[in-house]
Every structure is written in C-alpha cells, then in structure tokens.
Amino acid sequence: MTAPVVTLLAGGVGGAKAAEGLQASRYADHAAVIGNIGDDDIFHGLTVCPDIDTLIYSLSGQIDREKGWGLRDESYQALEGLKAFGHETWMTLGDKDFATHIYRTCALNSGATLTEVTLGIAQRFGLKLPIMPPTNDKVPTQIHFDGQWHSFQRYFVQHQCQPEIDGIRYQGAEQATATPEVLKQLSNSDIILLAPSNPLVSIGAILAIPQIRQTIQNSNAFVLAISPFIGGQTVKGPADRMMRALGKAANNIALAEHYAGLIQGLVIDHQDKEDQAAIEALGIKTYCLPTLMQCLEDKAQVVSASLEWAIKQSTTSSATEEALL
Length: 325
Ligand code: FO1
What we know:
It is built from 13 helices and 14 strands. The protein is α/β, with parallel strands linked by helices. A seven-stranded parallel β-sheet has the order 5-2-1-9-10-13-14, with helices on both faces. The chain has a three-stranded antiparallel β-sheet with strand order 7-6-8. Strand 6 and strand 7 form a beta hairpin. The longest helix has 29 residues. The model has no long low-confidence stretch (mean pLDDT 95).
C-alpha cells in the first residue's frame, strides 16, 4: 500500500495525543482528523468548541500542557470582568482563548459553516493536518443526572463529573447531515483510527451521526481503535466511571463489545494481554503494546506502531480474500 490515507476520529485530551502522534508520523501528509463537537456549548454568547480547540492548540504546540486544554501563558481578565457582571464563570476561558471564540462566533454569525471556521482557526495556528467537524449542524451531547438532562460541560466542568449519571443522549445527531468533506475523507481512507478518547461521549458523539457510522461501515478501510483503558481505568477523564454508570465494564472487552461491527482491530496496553482471547472471540484482531502516551515520542510511537500493524492486517486480509477468489 503506497501512502495510505489515514483518518483519525478524536475527542479532546486523549484524541489530541493521538493527533499529535499522527502529525509526527510518516502518515501525516495523507491524514485528517475528525473532531468531536458534542461538547460544544455557548458561554457569554460565544460558541465554544472545546475538543476542536484542544486538538488545534495541541497540534500547534500552544496548549497548556499541565491542564491539557486552553492556551499556555493565559490571563483571565475578561472572565473576571464577566464575573463582576454576574455571569457564571465556572468554564475557565482565558483572554487569548476568548479571541478564538469571538472569531468563531463572528464568522458563524456572518454565515460561514463550522467547517470553514475550523479551517480558519487551524490556519491561524499554522496547522497542515486538516481538522474537520463531522457536521455543520448542532449535535450537543447531554448527560442525565439528578432527574434531568444537562449540557456536557455542566456535567464535566461545573460538576467535575461527580454526579451519578443514568443517561447520555446525542441531541440532533439522528437528523444531522455529515459534511461532504468528511464523507469524502472517510470514503477515501485506507485506515480509520478511533483515538483513545471517551468511547461514549467523544467517539460516541461522532458515531451517533448515522451517515458517519454507515460510511465507516461501508468503507474498505481497516478500522481500528486504540483503547483508552489500561488495567480497567482511563488515564484521564470519566470514561471508566461513565461506562460503569451505564452498566458496562470499564475494560477492553467491554470496549470491543461496544465497537463490535465497526472495528476490525483493537490496540490494547501490554498490561492487558490477558484480554486478547476474549476480544478475538468477538472477531476483532488485537495488538498489544505500551499505550501510555506521555511525551511526543510515546505519541508518535503508539500511533505509528498501530498504523503499521493496521496496514499489515489489511494487506494480509486482502491477500487472503484474493487467494479465496
Ligand atoms: N475543563 C475543565 O475541567 N475546566 C475548565 O474550566 C475548562 C475550560 C475549558 C475552556 C476551553 C476549552 O476549550 C476547554 C476547557 N476545558 C475545561 C476542557 C473541556 O471541558 C474538556 O476537555 C472537554 O470538553 C472534554 O473532552
């Protein structure tokens, strides 16, 4: 296979790690990232796209590495001013970050699509790797706790993922239209990689758009996921607790069951080698390697090794198919 076309589906922090690995790999020139927009929300009248911005800020090297989101060397004077006016300020938006949200909101108000606006922001931050929202429609993820539905950011940031949840819904996803750019990208892909992002609210929100799921299912690409679970826990974020709250186990086998019918391969951590047989019994090939991504070298290594393995699997299965014909 010469220069395979790779598409990464990614959420925020875990997704950005894989995106950075992809950007640093030899596959970067023929790759694109589809970012989750289910976490998007309105603050102070501005449209904020946390996962898309986390991807762009990470890939440009301008992310606050300690927090994993927002820009480094931030100040918070605008937020302080808004607090004095009585606005809710639990969503910590920095002064430099505000420029992104003001640009995005102005452009959307002038009639630009989210795809065009995202391209504009990615260009301003000097990215070559295309970052695409799955749809130009609104598809807010909502979380059910304390007897009512709440926005994702209210659950995640204001309530610090503490409430016991009993439901997740992807509002508007069923009716949403995937963008032509994303459908073309997926159809042309040789490999589709699901990042080690939250399978329920990050990858789940992208896959909740029927056209996206169907296009992936109908594509000839080898579809694989990197598991966010290591030893039954996530490195960061509430995916483990969310899985358990919804009656699923927080491990690779439950993840494989969750993605069954969509993925052909699952990359798991070498500590979880004993999960291999159960996953392969579901018809999903597995590959074990150290999946913890702390520095850029780790990120490049995990993504490159996963993609190389995927290429080997897809050439082996097409050779087998040809031999059977
Ligand atoms: N996460 C937090 O835990 N606290 C915050 O105050 C916060 C602010 C914030 C502002 C802009 C942005 O792009 C992201 C921000 N995040 C914050 C992260 C964000 O809520 C999550 O990373 C994702 O939505 C989950 O993937």
